[in-house]
Design brief:
With about 350 residues, the chain is α/β, with parallel strands linked by helices. The protein contains 8 helices and 11 strands.
Length: about 350
């Protein structure tokens, strides 16, 4: 009889514990397998790996889902981009639904169709002119680290420039895909040593300079003086992704085109602003004629920026704090961060 009572107690206790779990569902959408740190290049998924650990520290269970049905036991449901089956969200209380707008309109047009936002209580976005701190809040693309890779090659030994991008298309008027292709076409008429193209989707028939895909941007770009860092779209305030940071941590000077207010986030002396040149030829001559001393000054400015407090906007810590605050505004930060603000479990 005692044994039966013990088993009954254990069953009831385990059932209560299970039923009391606070479950967060995450629909990653086009972001893919965001918790795979083994296969992801250059640690790009580390912010999500540590986010999952942070949830666990606060007593949440994070479950990744591809479908939005049968999620009624959720504490919260987070969507990375507006999901394809967004109308299914109407079955859940709006207070449980949070949206993060990762992709721009050139990649995921539905993200900026305002009627799709009605299903969510709050929306987090990089798009500055949407922010009202009532429904729309700011988040920043988190970067895995800010350590500059070392290159054994001298200025003279490095090749001039490179571009690492997937092959994409868009009819959006602010798309920069056409400008990427314009760069590729321009260098078809110039020496092979001046430009290399990398990325998925391209083929040798696209360019004589195509070198294939890369497993590490840092290992590739540290062999170049300059990198073309064109975002997916231009003329959008706040759209600063990993592209410019990939160049920074590779010890490579970025040629940037994208966020209309890039200098609100990154000092002007850290990059070459493509908008300052009338043509690719004018830009090309500027790159070819840059002295080693001038190039070194760019790299010194970059290192100073990466060590500054301003860079923390794009840190893993800031990203985790933003997400956790969206779930639980007054969460116990002492479980996640040290008194200096670093993560306790790295």
């Amino acid at each position: 009889m005692k044994l039966k009572m013990i088993f009954l107690f254990m069953f009831v206790f385990s059932f209560q514990s299970y039923s009391e779990k606070r479950i967060i569902y995450l629909e990653p959408g086009s972001c893919g397998d965001i918790f795979d740190i083994k296969e992801a290049r250059d640690g790009i998924t580390l912010p999500f790996f540590y986010l999952k650990r942070a949830f666990i520290k606060l007593g949440y269970e994070l479950r990744v889902v591809s479908k939005l049905n049968n999620l009624h036991d959720a504490e919260k449901i987070i969507c990375f981009n507006v999901p394809k089956q967004f109308k299914e969200l109407s079955r859940y209380p709006k207070e449980k639904l949070l949206l993060f707008l990762w992709e721009p309109a050139t990649v995921w047009p539905r993200n900026f169709e305002k009627q799709t936002h009605q299903y969510f209580s709050v929306v987090y976005t990089w798009k500055d002119d949407l922010i009202d701190n009532i429904k729309y809040f700011k988040f920043y693309y988190p970067q895995p680290h800010f350590t500059v890779a070392k290159s054994e090659k001298t200025f003279d030994e490095k090749r001039l420039s490179a571009m690492i991008n997937c092959k994409k298309d868009s009819v959006h008027p602010f798309s920069l895909y056409g400008e990427r292709r314009a760069v590729i076409r321009f260098f078809e008429k110039h020496p092979d040593i001046d430009f290399d193209l990398y990325g998925y989707g391209w083929h040798a028939r696209d360019s004589k300079n195509f070198k294939g895909a890369v497993s590490s941007k840092a290992e590739c770009l540290k062999n170049y003086r300059f990198c073309f860092c064109y975002e997916n779209m231009k003329n959008v305030a706040g759209y600063v992704t990993e592209k410019i940071f990939d160049a920074f941590v590779s010890g490579c000077v970025p040629i940037y085109w994208g966020a209309s207010n890039i200098t609100d986030y990154v000092p002007q002396n850290c990059f070459i602003d493509r908008r300052n040149f009338k043509s690719n030829n004018e830009l090309y001559l500027f790159l070819k004629n840059m002295s080693e001393d001038e190039h070194r000054r760019y790299l010194e400015n970059i290192k100073s920026y990466l060590k500054s407090t301003n860079i923390q906007l794009f840190s893993i810590e800031n990203f985790i704090d933003i997400v956790l605050s969206a779930i639980e505004f007054d969460y116990d930060r002492s479980k996640i961060f040290s008194s200096e603000g670093s993560l306790l479990f790295i």
